[in-house]
Each structure stands twice: as structure tokens, then as C-alpha cells.
Design a protein that fits this description.
Layout: E1 17-28, E2 47-57, E3 60-64, E4 67-68
């Protein structure tokens, strides 16, 4: 039985996204880390432990070592199936 647009299941044909992290990586949140247009964040200068190093969406790497590497406009919204 093939999966049809099942969000989050880890199986062939499912639509699951993964973030791979370095749990012990220490880093400081800096202005170049911002994705917001405002240029402001209460986290600027704050130190963190744990960092995303790769994100995979539908089998494709879209973020790698601090840079977005996926094709622009490739993503799509998949709404979860909620039991009624």
C-alpha cells in the first residue's frame, strides 16, 4: 500500500521533512542569522547550544551548513489530515 501525501510519516512515499542537528555545537545568534526584515530580535548576541546543520524536505536538501541551498519556489504547503 503506497502512502499518499501523508505528512510526517517516515515511510516510502510519505511527505516527511527532517532537520539534522549538531546537539553540542555552540554558537552565537548574530544579525546575519536573522530572516526577519526588521533587523531586530531579542536573541541577538545570545549564545545557544545545538544547531541545525541540514534540512531535508521531500528528499531534497534545502538548508546546509548555514545556507539555504534549495530552489526558490520549490516548496509547497501540505496540510495535515486531522481526524474529524
Amino acid at each position: 500500500m503506497a502512502c499518499t501525501r501523508v505528512k510526517g510519516a517516515i515511510t516510502v512515499g510519505a511527505d516527511a521533512d527532517f532537520a539534522i542537528i549538531a546537539p553540542d555545537k555552540q554558537w552565537t545568534f548574530q544579525r546575519q542569522n536573522l530572516e526577519a526584515r526588521s533587523g531586530m530580535s531579542p536573541y541577538l548576541g545570545r549564545e545557544f547550544t545545538g544547531q541545525v546543520v541540514r534540512t531535508i524536505v521531500r528528499g531534497r536538501t534545502v538548508f546546509l551548513d548555514g545556507s539555504v541551498v534549495g530552489e526558490m519556489g520549490w516548496g509547497q504547503l501540505v496540510k495535515p489530515n486531522h481526524a474529524n
